[in-house]
Every structure is written in C-alpha cells, then in structure tokens.
Specification:
The complex is a heterodimer of chains A (about 525) and B (about 400). Chain A has about 525 residues and is mainly beta. Chain A is built from 5 helices and 23 strands. Chain A has a 19-stranded antiparallel β-sheet that branches. In chain A, strands 4-9-10 form a 3-stranded antiparallel β-sheet, with no helix packed on it. The chains are: A mainly beta (about 525), B mainly beta (about 400).
C-alpha cells in the first residue's frame, strides 16, 4: 500500500510538473554538505553571509568538513557551440563550516582541471557574459585550470542581529592547443557583506554582492605556414573575420558586478513557513586592448533579477516559485587614433555617444517541489521551467542576425536510500525533458542587403555555422535520462552517475565518479 | 547595528538606480548628407544622378550605396561610426569617368568629428575629378603570394605587370627613370594613416627605378613588361604558383638586399631606400602600388632630401620616409585586405576606391585589369582611376613574360 502511495505521489508530481531550476544531471555527486545545509535551512543556501549563523541552529555538530574528488567525462555531438566534443574533468574540493566561539565560519577551496577535444568558438571563459568576443573556428584541444577559494564569517550582534561577510577569489587559466591558440587568464574577486535580523517568527536579511573580474585574452599562431582567421564577434554571432597577421590579437576584459539581495522569512508554526529571496544586480563589462592605447572593442551592460519564493510545509516539503530575468545591451565606440603630444604615442580617442549594437532578453519562470519524508528512505524532486532567450545584433536600423529560443523543461529526480547497518546505498534515477516553449516563433533570418536597396554586404556579417549549431542546441527537444548511485559508510562515500541526452540531432552522454570524505 | 542596516539598504537602492540606466543615450542611426561638387570650368557634362556614392563602414562588412539627385545631394541614415566615402561613374560611350573620395571620417550622433576633435554638421562636400586615361597602366599585380610545394607560405614569386594602354595608334612610352613603389602605411589594416590629409604621399621604405638613359626601354602600345618584386627566378620548382619569373623583363634586385634574387638575362632595377632592411616589404594583403616619376628627375629629387624626406608626423627619430607629390603618380592601384577595417591611402585623383581579394592570403591569386576593347590585336584595358571597377580580384596570374 505504501509502495502504491509513493508511486502515486511520484506520478502526481510528474503530472503536476512542479519544479525549480530544472537540473540536467543526477547530482548525486554534488556536495553533500551544501545539499544538507540548504535542506536544513533555506537561509544557508542564500547569498547572505550573515545567514550562516543559522548553522548553529540547524546542526547538532560544531563543525562539518568535507573533501571530495571528482572525475567527469562527457561526450557527444549534441552540444552548445562553445562546448568541446568531449570533455574530461578532474576536481578536488574541500569545504568546511564550523562554530568558532560566537561566530560561525565557512570556507572552501577547489582545484579543477579540464581537457576538451574539438573545441571551437571558445574565446572567453564565459562567452554568455558579453556579446563581444575574439574567437576562432578551428577545432582543437582545450584545457582549463581552475582555482577557487571562499571564506565567510558570521557574527551575532546582540540577540536579534547578525553580521556577516564573505570573500571569494577564483582563477581560471583557459588555453587552446591548436592554432589559433588563445590563452585566457581570468581572475574574479568577490566581496559580500550582509546583515540579518530575527525576531520571533520573522527573519529579514539584506546583503550586497560586489565582484570585479578581469580576463586577459592572448592569441598566437605557432604554425606560420598557413594563414588563419580570427573572428571579432559583437553578439548573436554577428562578426567580421580578420587574417591573423593583421588582427588585434590580444584583449583585456574587465567587469564589475554589483547587486543586492533581500531575504525575508516568516514562520507560521507547525513546520509551515514562507521564505523569499530577491536579488537584483548590475553588471558592466568592457573590452579593450591589453596595453594603454585606449582602444575599446565594446561595452555591455546587463541586469540580473532573481526571485525565489518557497513555501515550506511539514518540514518535509518545499514548494518553490522561481523568476529570473536578465536583459543585456551591447555598445560600440567611435574611435580614432590621435597623437598624444605629451608621450609621442598614438592613442585611441573616443567621440560621440556609445552606439547600441546588441540586445538580449533572457527570462525563465519555474516552479519546483521537493519532498524529503522524515523516514529518510525516499526523496523526490520535480520542476518545470519555461523560458525564452531573445537576442539581436544590428547595425544602424539593419539586423545583422536575430535569434529567438524558447523552451519548456520538465525535471524529475527520485532518491531511494537503502540502509544496511553502517552502509547506505542511494539510487537516484532522474529525467529531464525539454520541449518547445510557449513563446516560440520562427527563426528570423536577417540579411541587411535585403532590408534596404542601398545596403550592400562586403563580407559575411555573421558566423552561419556557429549560429546554426546554437539554434539546434537551443531549439531541439531532448530527453536527458540517467541514474546515479552512491555508497556511504560512516564518513566516506563513493558516488557515480551516468546520464544520456538524446535528441533528433544527436546525443551527449555524461558520467561522473566522486569520492568524498567527511572529517 | 541599525545604522549598518540603513547603510546596506541605501546601497541597495543605489544598485537599483544603477541598473535603471542600462540603456545608454546613444542612437543606432544618424543622418549624413553628401553633396557632390563639380569642378569649376569643367568642359564635360556630368550627369550627377548616375554617380554611385558608396559609404563604406570601417567597423563592419556593410556599405551603403546611393545615387544623388540632380543637384548632387543624397542623404544617408546610418549607424554612427567610422566610414570612408567613394563616388564614381563611368560612361562607356564617352569614356569619361568621374571620381571622388573622402578619407576616413568619424560620424557621430553629434556630427562629423574634425581634425581638432570638434564636431561639425553631418554634411560632406566632395569634389568630383575627371579621370584622364594614362598611357601606362598597371595591368596585373600579384601580391598575395602562394605556397611552397610542401605547403608553407611563399611570397618570393610576386610581380607587377606594366602595360602601354594607349591603344592602336598610341604612342611608345619609355620606361627609363620611371619608378615603382608602395605607399606608406604598408598595410591598409594599420590603425591610422599618420599622413592623412598631408599634401604629399610617403613611400613605404624604398622605391625602384627603371634603368636607362631615356631611350633604352621602350614600351609600344599593347606591350607590357613584368617586374619581379623579390626574386626574378624560376619558381616552378618551388611554389604552387609555378611562375617562371626568370623570364621577367625586370627584377627588383640589389646586391645589398640579401632577400632578393635575379636570374641571368633579367634586367635589375635600381633601388633607393630609406632606413634599413634586406627585402622590399610589399604587403601580402594590402599594398597601395604606384608608378610615378618625380617631375624634376630622380637625381634632383633625391638631392633635395630636406624637402622630400620626413619623419612620421609627431616623431623626430626613426625612419625618414621619402615623399612624393600626388601629381607625379602615373598609375596606381590601392589594394585593401577588406573594405571594412581599412584605411585609404591614395587620393581619388589616382584611385578613387580600392580592390580587395575574397580568397585567403597565399592563395596564388592576383588582381588583373578589366579588358575594355581590342583593336587591331591591341588591347585596351579599363582605366577610370577606380580600382573597384577597373580590376578583377581573385584572378589567376597570367603575366606576359619574355
């Protein structure tokens, strides 16, 4: 009877299609500490560092420490244009959270190494961050070495207030090993202060999130026997190609993000509570020369809005509503070189207002439901998301390229824990299905030469092959199904998962092996 | 603590204010009015409505083409940016060509940016020039290079062919003391032309003179000569172009230039250079090639170094470049890598536009002049001082060797 009940519950969840951010993977190998803490209290999953004082309230232990080693492999033709055809990753992570007197400390350190094959168009660590990018089309192996560290402290101030601050520093060294070879060095510094006020059933929090990042991009060609071409992208794959010998081959990208999050929680008693976190942030990004000649390749401005509302009931269930919206605009500058009489050096001087050339609207709506019964044997998670991505690159009044993608995603994940004395084995079947979105409209083909009798093209205005690959990636329905398994004994756990994404246009499979130790 | 809380809330309000100004003030479209002017005293009738005006963007692969009204005016609505302007028309019946060009300019939402950084009204006035056909023209320029038989880049097989285009009944031209060179900057992709707006043109490091006493190297109508730019030798065993430049008429060769070669039977040109080097550096993607003759003669020209040798503007050291007057140019072809991201170096009086290759560098292709007519076996090639229409890019080299 109980089994029938569980099946009914699981089936109902699929039908209701309730979800949060639809996860594409089994996630059995994700951090057990983070998963444990965010389930114990939503505050511990927020951006607010003051909220880590919540650890004292939700944990019986004075500390939780964890070290995890991951190995991942993914391969297949169904992928984003930025992804390599196959990718091997290794990662070591250590995390800790502990009470220290009245304060609570949290920290992590990670090192990762990735090696991909047949990578193209990967001119930046995060290409979606800006429309402007220098990239090349020749497939080749790529490596990425990543370091990340984070430290946070929360200190209670009186009975109702707590103050926290978090700082993080990430470094990424991306390199392609086939001509044209880009070497990208990215550094990302983050600082986030926050406060939290608690009085009876009400808790309020506010935090700021500031980060500054730089990415230095340098291209080189080792084999000089043939001429290679670089592409200067300005969004939506609009570009112009330049022979490497005559191209600007290095760039410096600098950016800043500043945002704020407000959190509010209200407890109704009997395990019922409401929790909401609202984040609004601004990101400014600028690309110029690595030197000091004043050349500006383009700026982007974007906003990020996120709201997550949770209804927690029975201490076992969470119903979530998720909204995110992030518009982006790209601008070019009108510049010319002028002699600086003081230094005798020619520098680029900017005239007039920035010229808009790119717009993007990225929106996602989702609902999620997660159930973790007290019995501890079963866990359920399901989510439905709908979203759209709309972007346009243009020059003057003429579209160079436009894209419109829309999707509906449904995700289901079930965990079943089997207990054998000190041993626990967890099985995690999962599935994510992606369908056409409710906002779908046909692909818009832009040919400036057809938009006005007096516009002529003197070369390609966008990278058609990359654009077509991205269209396939965004618009093709797929089913991603997989299973994970984890064995836990005392402080040690070993997990593995395998999933396969199948679509009419191809497949992509993913496997992970993880070894974790708590101490 | 409350003060801290208020501070954080004020900061968050500032974040919200910041994000409210995601959109910049700038406009994506701005007007530009172009007015064509006919030179005073012109004794030919020019139909301005047939003049094609091309506004070429320097930041993208788009150009805007329009014809003016009878008064020579036309209005464009384009994105603010960097442009150059080319205007041309050619009447095949009367064989009258008119051209005009305006070097790169900045068009902003506030107007056109002047040399001193001030803004002026978005109106461009350009003066048309009537193209006078030359007897001597560049028939073919092979500058792109090819590859070795093993697949490596190869540039030693490049040449220029000079042709007597005066047609049947035309006059014989003597090559003696004529010079060939390229205009500085070497490449069109250079960020700026330091000498833009100057009354003279800078030569890219060196120029080469045809030898002779004035009557040694005649070129009859319909005849041409091939000048090997680096190695006047047989390249058929070295490169995929297979050019046998040991059969060239002239070779750019000087003993002190270790990168050059010459075969027996090829007449060496005379080298004059500024600065140092071991090879004539002709751009593989964008040379502005010229034939010229100093009006006072080469010896007198070189003797007046004070007047004709100059440092780059703003510099008082480095290479002193030889300069020439625009009027000395007999024929020229301006080649650019692509119409965008290129600067224009030659005045419209000698080349009102530019030609560019669609094939990749080292493709073994060249630019060759359009054949206009043939009378009594003597060919006449199109010469409207407008290389975009006078030359065919991506042509297979076909030099008329000895």
């Amino acid at each position: 009877m109980r089994r029938i009940y569980r099946m009914l519950v699981a089936g109902a969840m699929v039908l209701l299609s309730i979800t949060g951010k639809a996860q594409d993977r089994a996630l059995i190998t994700s951090s057990s500490i983070d998963d444990y803490l965010s389930w114990k209290s939503l505050w511990l999953g927020s951006r607010n560092p003051a909220a880590i004082s919540e650890f004292r309230a939700v944990s019986d232990s004075a500390h939780l420490n964890e070290a995890v080693a991951y190995g991942e492999y993914e391969s297949g033709s169904f992928r984003s244009p930025y992804d390599p055809e196959s990718l091997l990753k290794g990662r070591l992570e250590a995390r800790s959270i502990m009470n220290a007197g009245k304060a609570v400390l949290r920290g992590s350190f990670g090192y990762g190494y990735e090696n991909g094959e047949k990578s193209r168009w990967r001119g930046l660590n995060n290409p979606s961050e800006t429309p402007f990018m220098l990239a090349d089309s020749i497939p080749g192996s790529i490596s990425n070495e990543k370091y990340s560290m984070m430290a946070a402290v929360s200190v209670p101030m009186g009975g109702k207030w707590s103050f926290g601050v978090e700082t993080g520093y990430d470094v990424s060294l991306l390199a392609k090993h086939v001509d044209l070879r880009n070497k990208n060095t990215r550094m990302d510094f983050r600082l986030a202060p926050g406060i939290r006020w608690t009085s009876g059933p009400v808790s309020l929090g506010a935090s700021l999130d500031y980060s500054r990042y730089t990415e230095k991009i340098e291209y080189m060609q080792v084999d000089q026997s043939t001429e290679k071409y670089l592409f200067e992208f300005s969004g939506a794959w609009a570009c112009r190609s330049i022979g490497f010998s005559s191209a600007e081959t290095s760039r410096m990208m600098t950016g800043q993000r500043i945002g704020g999050e407000l959190e509010a929680a209200l407890s109704f008693g009997n395990g019922w509570s409401l929790y909401n976190e609202f984040f609004y942030g601004y990101r400014g990004n600028s690309q110029g020369e690595t030197g000091y000649n004043g050349l500006r390749h383009g700026d982007s401005r974007s906003a990020v809005l996120n709201d997550n509302l949770y209804l927690v009931f029975g201490q076992q269930s969470r119903l979530g509503l998720h909204v995110s919206d992030s518009p982006m605009f790209g601008y070019r500058f009108i510049q010319r070189q002028e002699l600086d009489p003081a230094s005798g050096i020619r520098r680029y001087v900017t005239y007039g207002s920035p010229v808009p050339c790119y717009e993007r609207k990225d929106m996602d709506l989702g609902v999620s439901y997660e159930l973790r019964p007290v019995s501890g044997k079963w866990e359920y998670y399901t989510a439905v998301n709908v979203g759209k991505l709309e972007e346009k690159a243009y020059e003057g009044g003429y579209g160079l390229n436009e894209n419109f993608h829309s999707y509906t995603k449904v995700a289901l994940r079930v965990k079943r824990h089997f207990f054998f004395g000190e041993n626990t084995i967890s099985l995690v079947p999962m599935a994510v299905a992606k369908f056409y979105g409710p906002f779908a409209k046909p692909k818009i083909y832009c040919d400036p030469a057809e938009q006005s009798y007096y516009v002529q093209k003197t070369g390609d205005v966008y990278a058609a092959s990359a654009d077509a690959m991205e269209d396939i990636w965004y618009d093709t329905p797929y089913l991603n199904a997989g299973i994970g398994i984890r064995w836990t004994r005392k402080t040690m756990s070993i997990g593995a998962d395998f999933s396969c994404m199948a679509s009419e246009e191809g497949m992509r499979s993913h496997a992970t092996l993880a070894l974790g130790i708590r101490f | 603590m409350k003060r801290l809380a208020y501070s954080l809330y004020i900061l968050m309000a500032m974040v919200l204010l910041c994000t409210s100004c995601l959109r910049e003030e700038g406009s994506s479209v701005t007007p530009l009015q172009v007015v064509l002017k006919v030179p005073q005293g012109l004794d030919v009738n020019v139909d301005l409505t047939k003049v094609t005006i091309r506004l070429q963007s320097k930041t993208s692969s788009l150009s805007y083409v329009a014809n003016p009204d009878e008064s020579g005016e036309v209005r464009f609505n384009v994105q603010p940016g960097r442009y150059d302007l080319l205007a041309s028309s050619y009447d095949k019946v009367t064989r009258i060509a008119v051209n005009a060009s305006h070097p790169e300019f900045l068009l902003t939402d506030k107007g056109i940016v002047g040399a001193d950084g001030s803004f002026s009204e978005s109106v461009l006035e350009v003066l048309l020039e009537v193209a006078v056909p030359n007897a001597l023209v560049i028939r073919e320029l092979y500058y792109h290079g090819s590859t070795t038989l093993e697949g490596a880049q190869y540039t030693k097989d490049r040449y220029v062919e000079i042709y007597n285009n005066s047609g049947a009944g035309g006059r014989t031209v003597y090559l003696d003391s004529l010079c060939v060179s390229t205009i500085y900057p070497y490449n069109s992709t250079t960020g700026n032309n330091a000498w833009q707006g100057a009354d003279t043109l800078a030569l890219a490091q060196m120029f080469w003179m045809f030898p002779g006493n004035g009557h040694e190297h005649p070129l009859k109508p319909g005849e041409s000569c091939v000048v090997a730019l680096t190695s006047a030798v047989d390249h058929s065993k070295r490169a995929t172009s297979g050019l046998e430049l040991n059969r060239a008429h002239f070779g750019a060769y000087a003993d002190h230039l270790s990168g050059h070669e010459i075969a027996a039977g090829v007449t060496p040109m005379i080298c004059y250079m500024a600065g140092q080097g071991n090879t004539w550096a002709v751009s593989i993607h964008s040379p502005a090639f010229i034939i010229f003759k100093p009006e006072m003669g080469v010896d007198a020209y070189r003797a007046d170094a004070v007047r004709w040798e100059r440092y780059e503007p703003g510099k008082s050291s480095g290479t002193k470049y030889w300069h020439i007057a625009k009027e000395w140019i007999i024929d020229a072809v301006e080649c650019v890598d692509s119409p965008d991201q290129s600067i224009k170096r030659l005045p419209s009086s000698v080349d009102a536009s530019y030609v560019y290759m669609r094939s990749p560098h080292y493709s073994g292709k060249c630019v060759t002049r359009v054949l206009e007519s043939e009378t009594d076996g003597i060919k006449v090639y199109q010469d409207t001082n407008n290389s975009a229409s006078d030359f065919i890019p991506d042509s297979i080299p076909s030099p008329n060797l000895k």
